[in-house]
Specification:
Layout lengths: L16 H5 L3 H11 L5 H17 L5 H11 L5 H15 L2
C-alpha cells in the first residue's frame, strides 16, 4: 500500500449457517430478553431449551457459558421461574 488514500479495507466474510446458528451465553441472553415481550414463561423456557440444546450439541456452548447465562438471565425471573430454569440448566449441562 503506497497511500492511505488508496486504502480499502478487505470485506469481512459473512457468517456461515453454522456460525450464525451458534450463540454465546451473552448473545443468547440478549436474544431471549428481546424475545420475552409477549411470551409466557413456558414459551420462553421452550425457546431457551431449543437454542441451548442446539448450541450444546454443536459443541459451541460450554457448561461455564450455561452458568453465565443462568446468572445473567435469572435476575429477570421470579423465584419459581428461577427454580424451573435451574432444572433446565442442569438438564442442558448433562448433554
Amino acid at each position: 500500500m503506497r497511500s492511505f488514500k488508496n486504502y480499502t479495507p478487505k470485506p469481512t466474510p459473512e457468517k456461515t449457517d453454522t456460525e450464525s446458528a451458534t450463540l454465546t451465553a451473552s448473545e443468547l441472553t440478549k436474544k431471549l430478553a428481546s424475545a420475552w415481550n409477549g411470551k409466557n414463561s413456558r414459551q420462553l423456557l421452550a425457546e431457551i431449551i431449543s437454542e441451548a440444546e442446539k448450541s450444546k450439541r454443536q459443541g459451541t456452548l460450554t457448561n461455564g457459558e450455561i452458568d453465565e447465562f443462568y446468572n445473567q438471565f435469572s435476575a429477570f425471573l421470579s423465584p419459581k421461574e428461577k427454580r424451573a430454569l435451574g432444572a433446565v440448566i442442569q438438564k442442558l449441562k448433562s448433554i
